[in-house]
Write a structure and sequence with these properties.
By secondary structure, the protein is α+β, with helices and mostly antiparallel strands. It contains 26 helices and 17 strands. Helices cover 52% and strands 12% of the residues. Strands 9, 10, 11, 12, 13, 14, 15, 16 and 17 form a nine-stranded mixed sheet that branches. Helix 11 crosses helix 12, helix 15 (414-424) packs across helix 19 (514-529) and helix 18 (482-510) packs across helix 19 (514-529). The radius of gyration is 29 Å and the shape is globular. The two termini are 18 Å apart. The structure holds adenosine-5'-diphosphate (ADP) and magnesium ion.
Length: 728
């Protein structure tokens, strides 16, 4: 082992876990740093409290005078917690969160000062936003951006800063962030679902989408991570030969959590408690040093904020413990990747989970309605669903052998499949009394039982029904959940609107009873969306063939997948529902394509550097050692030397071959990048990066990894896979 690696590993092994003392019960500190309902009651005037609650529940506007009262209360609370600054906290399209801190402190002359935080500062801010991606919106409209308070996600204190969740929009109204379209989509599904719920219960006034995410990640010693320029700069290893032992023994999954990692998790969980992120489960994942953390589910907007905040907090807490968190979907080739399952459901203000079993036949018909409409929505928009999770990093995971395929399909389990089969045979038009009774008793009536027992899990499905929710499993671990959540809620809202129209139409024109009309429409939906249902092994080759026959898309790369975001159909749905207008859709597409290009460009540069500046020089050094050896043998044995130097000479040749291949491929890659950089059209540019530049990564890597196996371990400068994965 090289001395460099040896010291990094020794240092890492010598690090002691930071023991985390939990002095208080978690339930006592939960939400301690959140300006939630309790705190509002305490710190706000009655009028201000009522007004905020009305804004949260009914989306009413808060007037300026009341905003002043609210900001004053918020400031008092924050100061009581030692806070000095405030920030508008938002989620620009860079994928990170953004904040700019301003002090409460304000000098008022004569050497005196006060702490000030007015309603205006709470409600709206103008960050210098010119350097956030906007996909040409600003150029087109010369608009400046501003952030505006989102009262539905409570303010919180992190460190000594009061953070106010906000949306980020252009002055001309276009969304420049993830939250704005999500809020619009949630409004759309609320409206559409309430209308459909009224068939079953007139008391339903509001429907909330819920989200429970599960965050997977790798935890790597900070020193070791820093020893790899690829991990430092791209979040993943761009080369590295597989470790002799990987995950094949399955000895990590659900195993004992190593102590240093455990202390990290405890520390992280404490921070989450204070911030009101209700984390509940933690466990080892399949790969070594891979873990998962999941909260109790929450209203989707809040859950999205929590996930974005969590990713920040994870980074910060990791620093304290000398770890680096790898969120990348595929940090190590040949080792399990990371995802972020999005569990999704809908629930009413009357406390009913619309994707859960009900108590009466009517409420179970309601379940079927939402269940089948969701399937139909995914069926009709499978390409858009695929696009909602597309990213350069997720491309490594989708379609790779231990991850969901790039084909979107829905898994519902055997028993629900049987239910749909029976429903498919419902008579066209009016139902006989016998048929109605039969449906109620033998089909709808059995649903509670079936759902209770829906343990049939298919781990290979990208979108699975799991008893009382759908689980969107193909979401990447680096993703902002707002992206898939916006798409899912929008397409389901769109579908529910369509459904309502069709049912009403049958009632009005054919004189069908409400439940007859519903059964009839659902029957048609089942027939039309059958193609998306798949119960088999999603990882198998057979499925790729079958899916192709069924006409399902299989977009393996981001540039290909993203096109669905700007199809006529998508633009229309988003426009009709007021989620994104055409300009917004187009600009988002451009941003995501550009991000893809930048991503591959950076990886290409880093790989080129490592190959030329680390790998090749090391190989040359080793080759020189071999040459010296051969020369020595020749000195001793004269013309007989070949008998003893044969292996060495073969190695010398092999090394030269690999060096030659690395150099020529790196040169090729640089040239392909140059060519791609000259392309103006973003579609063609992304295509060039995807199909001309990226494939060379594999070539270069192949020869580097071969050299890793040939070259003396003493000389190899890069921390190896086994050292990254098994040191903790
Ligand atoms: P796994 O997928 O790891 O087996 P589970 O099936 O237990 O885990 O999924 C649990 C996740 O589903 C939790 O994070 C939980 O918060 C979430 N969840 C449970 N019910 C709902 C719901 N109604 N809406 C959204 N998410 C939910
Ligand atoms: Mg899951």
């Amino acid at each position: 082992m090289s001395t460099l690696r040896f010291h990094a590993i020794k240092k890492s092994l010598n690090k002691k876990p930071i023991k985390i003392e939990e002095k208080e019960r978690r339930s006592n500190i939960f939400c301690a740093n959140v300006f939630n309902e309790d705190k509002m009651r305490q710190y706000l005037t009655k009028e201000a409290f009522v007004s905020v609650m009305d804004a949260i529940v009914n989306g009413t506007k808060i007037d300026r005078v009341v905003a002043d009262h609210i900001s004053t209360g918020m400031k008092e609370w924050a100061i009581s917690k030692g806070v000095t600054h405030y920030t508008h906290w938002f989620q620009p399209l860079t994928g990170a969160t953004a904040e700019k801190h301003d002090a409460f402190f304000e000098p008022i002359g004569n050497g005196r000062a006060i702490e000030k935080f007015g309603g205006g500062q709470l409600v709206q801010q103008e960050p210098d936003a010119s350097s956030f991606p906007n996909g040409g919106i600003r150029n087109t409209f010369e608009a400046r951006g501003y952030t505006a308070w989102d009262p539905t996600s409570p303010a919180f204190v992190y460190g000594t800063t009061l953070c106010i969740p906000t949306v980020f929009v252009a002055y001309t109204g276009e969304a420049l962030d993830y939250k704005t379209p999500l809020l619009r989509a949630l409004q759309a599904i609320d409206n559409a679902a309430v209308e459909v719920c009224k068939y079953f219960d007139k008391n339903v006034k509001k429907v909330n989408a819920s989200l429970g995410w599960e965050q997977e990640y790798f935890l790597i010693d900070r020193g070791l991570a820093a020893s790899r320029p690829d991990i430092q700069l791209t979040g993943r290893t761009l080369l590295g030969h597989s470790s002799a032992k990987g995950q094949q023994l399955d000895d990590h999954y659900f195993g004992t959590i190593p102590n240093r990692a455990m202390q990290y998790m405890r520390d992280l969980e404490t921070e989450c408690m204070l911030l009101g992120i209700p984390v509940k489960t933690r466990h080892n994942e399949v790969a070594p040093n891979q873990f998962e953390l999941a909260p109790v589910y929450d209203e989707a907007n809040l859950a999205v904020d929590h996930n974005s905040l969590l990713m920040d907090v994870m980074d910060k807490v990791a620093e304290r413990h000398d770890f680096k968190v790898l969120f990348h979907e595929k940090p190590f080739a040949g080792v399990n990747g990371s995802g972020k399952h999005n569990n999704w459901s809908l629930s009413t203000n009357t406390g009913v989970n619309l994707l859960g079993p009900g108590k009466t036949p009517m409420s179970n018909l309601q379940f079927l309605t939402f269940f089948i409409n969701t399937i139909k929505a995914v069926h009709d928009n499978e390409e858009l669903v695929r696009a909602s999770i597309a990213s350069a990093s997720n491309d490594h995971r989708l379609g790779a052998n231990e991850a969901p395929p790039a084909i979107i399909s829905v898994f519902i389990g055997e028993q629900l499949t049987n239910v749909l089969d029976e429903l498919q045979n419902v008579t066209n038009g009016k139902l006989s009394p016998e048929e109605k009774t039969d449906l109620k008793l033998n089909v709808v009536g059995k649903i509670p039982e079936i759902l209770l027992d829906n343990t049939d899990r298919n781990r290979t499905s990208p979108f699975a029904f799991t008893g009382n929710k759908f689980e969107f499993r193909a979401v990447g671990s680096t993703a902002n959940c707002a992206n898939p959540m916006t798409v899912l809620n929008t397409i389901v809202a769109n579908q529910l609107i369509e459904f309502k129209k069709e049912v009403d139409n049958l009632i009005d024109t054919k004189g069908l009873k409400k439940d007859e009309a519903i059964f009839n429409i659902l029957r048609e939906y089942i027939k039309k969306s059958k193609n998306i249902l798949f119960e088999g092994n999603g990882y198998g080759e057979a499925w790729e063939k079958e899916a192709k026959k069924r006409g399902l898309s299989n977009h393996k790369t981001t540039p290909e997948a993203l096109k669905a975001k700007v199809s006529k159909k998508t633009i229309k749905i988003f426009e009709d529902l007021g989620v994104l207008n055409k300009v917004e859709s187009l600009s988002r597409y451009e941003i995501e394509m550009e991000e893809y290009v930048l991503h591959i460009q950076i990886e290409g540069r880093v790989l080129g550097d490592i190959a030329r500046n680390h790998v090749v020089p090391t190989a040359v050094r080793y080759q020189n050692m071999l040459i010296e050896n051969v020369k020595g043998l020749k000195e001793i044995y004269g013309n007989d030397f070949k008998k003893f130097a044969k292996q060495q000479m073969t190695l010398i040749e092999e090394i030269s071959g690999h060096i030659e291949s690395i150099n020529s491929n790196v040169t090729k890659m640089i040239n392909e990048r140059k060519t791609a950089n000259h392309i103006e059209d973003i579609d063609k540019k992304a295509d060039a990066y995807c199909n001309k530049v990226k494939p060379l990564f594999n070539e270069i890597r192949y020869h580097c990894d071969k050299l890793e196996l040939l070259v003396d371990d003493e000389l190899w400068p890069l921390t190896k896979y086994r050292e990254l994965l098994f040191t903790n």
